[in-house]
Specification:
With 363 residues, this protein is α+β, with helices and mostly antiparallel strands. It has two domains: 182 residues, no CATH class; 152 residues, Nucleic acid-binding proteins (OB fold (Dihydrolipoamide Acetyltransferase, E2P)), CATH 2.40.50.140. It contains twelve helices and eleven strands.
């Protein structure tokens, strides 16, 4: 399930409701909710939070609803495009679901569904139903495309092979026979590629493995910043994204470099800044995909609360300093509600709020 609040407009990624058959519109509570979302200017992350994963054997070009479930619109995969998405749907409707990866490459027009587009499909997990090892799919892609191009060229000139005389689909080797026996991508790499292809994590989240640590030391989440006053000291986290390094016009102590970014945890995101005097001490701590803790103060100069960062601590530092400095017990401070979101237990004002975060996408 995707967990990041990604702000991508979806007005052109959905099928108009008046073209949907009636059974798709109010089939279930989920379908009803989907139609409501489609009629408003919602966000892509809000839409896919209830959708099934990308799947070349199920999704249409746009988001649709079938049997009460939202089917992921293939065109929402970055770099795919409408023409490629519609070509995949056309090939699938013509001869049925794709049997395997080679069958897919042979049946779609490789001039429309290019190598780069198929790479995005692999990274998004759209072939997982056919073969779950995404590293293996990426490894055989050049070979599969070459075989598909040769087969399509032969068919174009009427040079059909022996198997084509009986069944066009019989020419493909099976998936298991042609796939190399190599390890799949590590989970962190798989998630990195998912975000590259989709703009968010779908199958999991890099912070999921630190769930116990998060609840043990955390008193607030990003979502709860809206209830805190300006200037309150907190220790917050999430995923540090959209990092921008800039320079101030007038420097103190000769330090001009500072950083802006966004923090994203499992509940939301906030705009952040670390000014030069602090940044000069922590510039090396901005490491991509690093799980750590930060100390900050709440800033309320905009409608949404922001953060002014002061310190960055690695996990060992955080556990030593925060446990000792604040006398925390080993019992979780955050509990989970029925909808699996972090909810704080009314910490006293002025006490630090603690949430781990990951630094990503350093530029």
């Amino acid at each position: 399930m995707p967990v990041l609040a990604i702000r991508r407009p979806i007005s052109k990624l959905i099928t108009p409701l008046n073209s949907w058959p009636p059974f798709c519109r109010v089939k279930s509570k989920t379908a009803t909710s989907a139609t409501s979302w489609f009629n408003t200017s919602t966000t892509l992350a809000g839409l896919v939070s209830r959708s099934k994963p990308p799947n070349v054997n199920a999704g249409e070009a746009d988001f649709t609803v079938a049997d009460g479930a939202i089917l992921f619109g293939l065109r929402a995969i970055k770099g795919l495009g409408r023409s490629a998405a519609e070509e995949i749907v056309r090939a699938r409707n013509e001869k049925g679901p794709f049997r395997d990866f080679y069958d897919f490459c042979e049946r779609v027009d490789v001039k429309m569904v290019t190598s780069a587009a198929i790479e995005k499909l692999i990274k998004a997990g759209a072939f997982d139903e056919l073969h779950s090892n995404r590293a293996a799919l990426m490894h055989v892609l050049p070979k599969a495309l070459q075989a598909a191009a040769e087969l399509q060229e032969d068919r174009l000139h009427g040079q059909r092979n022996f198997f084509d005389m009986f069944d066009d689909d019989a020419a493909s080797p099976t998936n298991d026979q042609m796939m190399p026996d190599i390890p799949d991508w590590p989970n962190n790499v798989k998630l990195k590629y998912e975000k590259e292809a989709l703009d968010f994590y779908f199958s999991s989240h890099p912070l999921a493995q630190y769930d116990d640590l998060v609840r043990r030391f955390s008193s607030h989440t990003i979502e709860q910043l809206k209830d805190l006053p300006a200037g309150q000291e907190v220790i917050l986290g999430g995923m540090m994204t959209q990092i921008r390094f800039q320079n101030v016009k007038k420097a103190r102590n000769g330090n001009t470099r500072y950083a802006r970014c966004r923090f994203e945890d499992l509940t939301g995101s906030a705009e952040c800044v670390m000014w030069p005097d602090d940044f000069v001490k922590h510039k090396d701590d901005f490491v991509e995909d690093r799980v750590c803790f930060v100390k900050a103060t709440v800033e309320r100069t905009r409608e949404e609360p922001g953060l002014v960062l002061a310190r960055v601590l690695d996990l060992d530092q955080a556990q030593r300093e925060l446990t000792r400095g604040h006398g925390r017990s080993t019992q979780p401070i955050l509990s989970r509600s029925r909808n699996d979101r972090f909810i704080g237990k009314h910490p006293q004002r002025g006490r630090p709020a603690i949430v781990p975060f990951i630094c990503t996408s350093v530029t």
